[in-house]
Design brief:
This protein has helices spanning 10-31, 58-73, 75-100, 107-125, 135-140, 144-164, 171-190, 193-213, 222-243, 249-255, 257-272, 285-295, 302-327, 332-358. With 399 residues, the protein is an all-alpha fold. The chain has one domain (10-40, 52-385). Helix 7 runs antiparallel to helix 8 and helix 10 (249-255) packs parallel to helix 14. The longest helix is centred in the C-terminal third of the chain and has 27 residues, at 332-358.
């Protein structure tokens, strides 16, 4: 640990145990049927990749773990920062909780609540995006209105992108955990003790939920968890750019590459196909990975097994850009070059994968069971209006 070898480890251990214990308790309560009234039946939703009723309250474990760590072990940071972030995120989190317990809320309303919370935070703290290392944009960032607007869009986009990738067991929480680990590495390399502990305590709080969620899917993150992770990590990234002058903005983009990648291809796909941006489909990268895995599995358990296997493969695919971001954290030219290469490779791979999926290359022949038609790539009839538990601008919950 170098600079941090003499720092206590027990705050991280207690944070992990609290998050894990709460997650395990909710999962057991759900398994015993004690949360039936708070567990919507989302198995038949358009993007479902799970079977049975599963509680979608895992996000509360992450929020409680991170809040407890800040309040008990870092009280000054809690009262000056963490509590205020919770207040700003509160409207969006309330709507997300309603969604997680089966009370549907319009995605546009949740998006508006995210914008409102972000605006309130930035007006109160005056902590906007400080730089991008792009000369034209950096000139525009000197104007508070532009900096304010761009920062709001980036935070809201991160929140929605985390919700999009929350479609498989452990996917959103696993990627968020790795982002926190990379941020901790950057803080350590920059000699920032406070930022190091901010990232590591966030990581272990997420990890406590992850070990319950993956691979079994005993508890889902839900919209609440995806919104909180996206909101807190995006503000953390902006805070890192303020505190570390040598930190390259493209390196931060590499850390968040996978959620940003999923959001970008989703928006482009729906614009090209002239579909509503909030309309669910099954062409996200992780969903194509599920089809790829299912094609190679057999037996009655292939649906249940495909979920964690596809999640693991997707996380593996998300790691290279993160590693490049951590390696080139203080080298903007190298980080921009790495980002360009990743966009080219991952973009080309997605076009190829979607083409193969649309052609049915990875589709198993139907057994005649009507349930199999739910896994078609294109939605039929009135399905477009159905809510999804697995990562859209509409409800998240597969991971």
């Amino acid at each position: 640990m170098g600079l941090y070898s003499n720092q206590p480890f027990w705050p991280h251990l207690i944070t992990f145990l609290v998050s894990f214990s709460l997650a395990a308790a909710i999962a057991i309560a759900g398994w015993c049927g004690r949360l039936h009234g708070l567990t919507p039946d989302t198995e038949r939703a358009v993007q479902s990749s799970h079977a049975g009723r599963v509680p979608r309250l895992g996000g509360m474990c992450v929020i409680f773990g991170m809040t407890l760590a800040a309040m008990v072990f870092f009280p000054e940071q809690f009262w000056r920062g963490h509590l205020f972030i919770i207040v700003c995120a509160f409207p969006a989190l309330c709507l997300a909780i309603l969604e997680d317990v089966g009370r549907q809320t319009p995605p546009s309303l949740r998006l508006a609540a995210t914008f409102a919370g972000t605006a309130f935070y930035m007006m109160a703290t005056n902590e906007f995006l400080p730089r991008t290392d792009v000369a034209v944009i950096d000139e525009l960032l000197k104007y508070p209105t532009f900096a304010f607007a761009l920062s709001m869009v980036l935070v809201a986009a991160t929140v929605q992108s985390m919700n999009l990738i929350d479609g498989l067991n452990g996917l959103c929480s696993g990627i968020a955990f790795l982002i926190c680990v990379c941020l901790a590495y950057i803080a350590q390399a920059a000699g920032q003790t406070a930022l190091f502990y901010l990232a590591t305590t966030s990581a272990v709080a997420i990890l406590g939920f992850f070990v319950v969620n993956f691979p079994s899917g005993s508890l889902f993150l839900g919209d609440t968890g995806a919104y909180w992770i996206g909101f807190s990590l995006s503000l953390m990234a902006i805070h890192f750019l303020w505190q570390i002058d040598s930190l390259a903005p493209p390196a931060m983009l590499l850390l968040f590459f996978w959620p940003a990648y999923d959001l970008t291809v989703t928006v482009c796909r729906r614009l090209v196909s002239r579909r509503h941006l909030f309309s669910p489909d099954r062409l996200h990268p992780h969903q194509i990975a599920v089809r790829f895995v299912r094609r190679r599995l057999s037996g009655p358990q292939r649906r249940r097994a495909a979920n964690p296997i596809a999640s693991f493969l997707t996380i593996v695919l998300a790691v290279p850009p993160m590693l490049l971001g951590a390696i080139f954290w203080s080298r903007p030219e190298a980080a921009w070059a790495a980002l360009g290469v990743c966009v080219l490779i991952y973009g080309s791979a997605y076009v190829w994968a979607v083409t193969a999926a649309r052609a049915g290359a990875w589709r198993r022949p139907s057994s005649g069971n009507p349930r199999h038609f739910r896994y078609g790539l294109e939605l039929k009839g009135g399905q477009e209006g159905r809510s999804s538990p697995t990562g859209e601008f509409t409800p998240g919950g597969g991971g």
